Amino acid sequence: MDRISNIFKAKKPLIIFTEAGYPSMQQCEEAIDLAILNGADIIELGVPFSDPMADGPVIAEASQKTAEKGIGLTDVLLLAKRIRQKHEETGLILFSYMNPMLHYGYERLCKDLDALGVDGILPVDLPLEERNELLVPCRNHGLHLIPLVSPLTPPDRTREILANMTGFVYYINVAGVTGARKTLPEDYPELIHGVKALTNLPVASGFGIADAKTAAQAAQYADGVICGSGFVKAMETSPQAAARFIKELRTF
Amino acid sequence: MNTHYGIYGGAYVAETLTGALRELEGAFLEAMQDLSFKKELQDLLTNYVGRESPLYHAKRLSETCGGAQIYLKREDLNHTGAHKINNAIGQALLAKRMGKKRLIAETGAGMHGVATATVAALFGMECEIFMGAVDVARQAPNVERMHALGAKVRSIMEGGQTLKDAMNSALREWTSCSRDTFYLIGTAAGPYPYPMIVKEFQSVIGKEARRQCMEQTGRLPDEVIACVGGGSNAIGIFAGFLDTPQVRLVGAEAGGLGLETGMHAASINGGKVGILHGMKAYFLQDENGQMLDTHSVSAGLDYSGVGPEHCYLADTKRVKYTVIKDDEAIHAFDTLCRTEGIIPALESSHAIAQAIKDAATMSKDQIVIVNLSGRGDKDMENIKNYKVHHGQNL
User: Fold this and answer.
1) CA-derived radius of gyration, chain A
2) What is the reported pTM?
């Protein structure tokens, strides 16, 4: 069974990025449980990293604070294990900068993720040219390596990035770092349509989605909607605030 | 194109930045084939930077060491006071050619920030410099110089608030504005094609040094020494000698309080292979793969990584990378000031310290060239504080 494909077949999933271990491991786990109960379909488990170069202030701060506490990839795997035991149907994706994964060992990581029931890896800083070092171990263990496409990616390159990939496409809505925006870019419908025309994979849309309005706007065009910074900010307040945030977002 | 050095290098960036890197690679390769580009660069290096820089026989320093003859490649005499301007001029010309209106750069000691602010003024471009808050405090004179040149200085409050954090912030900024902004990386690090570009623009140091040594002494040096933080001055001078195996090459890393204390910035000697700032290279990191904060008396060497070609040169043993501690660098600073009347930057003082050690073990007819990468005016306050703190005479 391919959990991710089934989720996209059933509906337009709400995909939530969480900073694993933030603000504490217990509160994080509770926030994830409540997010799933209130309509999150796929959870991205963000691995804390000391140098989150592709993230805006909210996620960057959460990532650095958590990393400083000594929470690392091993702890994230233990969290993944507990989440999987409680939520059989939910998609689980490891979301990480390359260094913690390189340090852990790609082959060992993919073997462990597969054993824990994690569905795939979303590497932040791994473009097409360097991809094989992680793609090969992912393939060996039946994990999706989620490809990313940006508004600046030309069509030829998009085609090359998406050829023979599995899972879903992460379409980066805005040229920039993660974080809330008031609206999506004007050319958003056109650009995401262009990506969808080039692939049979479902295309999920992330970056800049932080409220019901932007989520609904994205859901008009995308096959799935990804929210990160908004949720991380809510997690920081309390698991209950995180649950309310998901309820408000899940209007599509 | 060869985008890697052995297993090191590459371009590990978010997809959003890959287009900007390809655009840069294309512009650079084209410019290198363009005689008018090379002519304009050469003219600026001669008449604006003041090249060539002298190769100076430091006789009193050599006598003090009692061994090999020490020659100093005087990059400290360049306009703006360090080797950084060689690369800044080259990349700014590329930016102009690419039609970019704004320059951004990271800086540690502030020398690259000053160089970038300088070329931005020269070419009439906007300029913003990213600098860790710790460095803003300890390199205040350079912050004032950047302001005087019309640049904005953004003080970075995250992480250890030094060079690594400045580079994170500059990369973030570039991700959102690469269409009209040129990121002028100051060290031979970062994603491909930067290590290649910085090496090309700094290789003038090595080419000149090799020719000058032949002219003055009739022979090649036995050893060439440079300090290594990110590694731009080192790769620049090594470039003139890499293909000549009989010339020993030595890179001095910042040993801080000593490798065993963990308070240092010696990525090759004390780090492990990692990925950050777009490259695979040696980085100082913990058991979770988190990058460690570094320590060095010199802000310009205070970086947890090192350029990818240096990693390769270390593995293949073409270059020997050593460790010089804070106190050795300070001692070398004093020695050069008082034997030659030359005030070196604290970064370059690490290379001087290595030369003092090595020259003493060599014979009087042997030659050591040291890259004196920058001048020490910016460090006077730090030197004073260090000496007061350690109970030494000023």
Assistant:
1) 16
2) 0.97
Q: What is the pLDDT of residues B291-336, one digit of tens each?
A: 998 999 998 898 999 999 999 999 999 999 999 999 999 999 999 9
Beta strands, E only, chain B: 4-5, 8-12, 55-57, 69-74, 102-107, 126-132, 152-156, 181-183, 223-228, 248-256, 272-276, 278-283, 319-325, 367-372
Neighbours of B245 (CB within 10 A): 9
Collect all residues of chain A within an 8 Å Cβ-Cβ radius of residue B277: 51, 53
- ipTM, two decimals: 0.96
User: What is the pLDDT, as a whole number, of residue B245?
Assistant: 98
The distance in angstroms from the start CA to the end CA of chain A is 26
Confidence grade of residue B1 (pLDDT, cut at 50, 70, 90): low
Looking at the DSSP assignment, which residues form a beta bridge with residue A93? A44, A120
* DSSP 8-state code for residue B155: E
Q: Taking CB atoms and an 8 Å cutoff, what residues of chain A touch B16?
A: 54, 150-152, 172, 175-176
Amino acid at A48: P
B217 or A176, greater pLDDT: B217
A51-92 residue pLDDT tens? 999 999 999 999 999 999 999 999 999 999 999 999 999 999
Catalytic residue, from B25, B106, B208, B309: name it.
B106
Among B299, B300, B270, B301, CA closest to B286: B270
Q: Are strands B278-283 and B272-276 parallel, antiparallel or unpaired?
A: antiparallel
**Do B275 and A98 make contact, defined as CB atoms within 8 angstroms?**
yes
* Interchain pair A99, B273: CB under 8 A: no
Task: Sort strands B4-5 and B8-12 into parallel, antiparallel or unpaired.
Answer: antiparallel
Nearest to residue B346, comparing CAs of B358, B334, B360? B334
Contacts of B15 in chain A (CB under 8 A): 127-128, 148-150, 153, 161, 172
Please name the amino acid found at residue B272: K
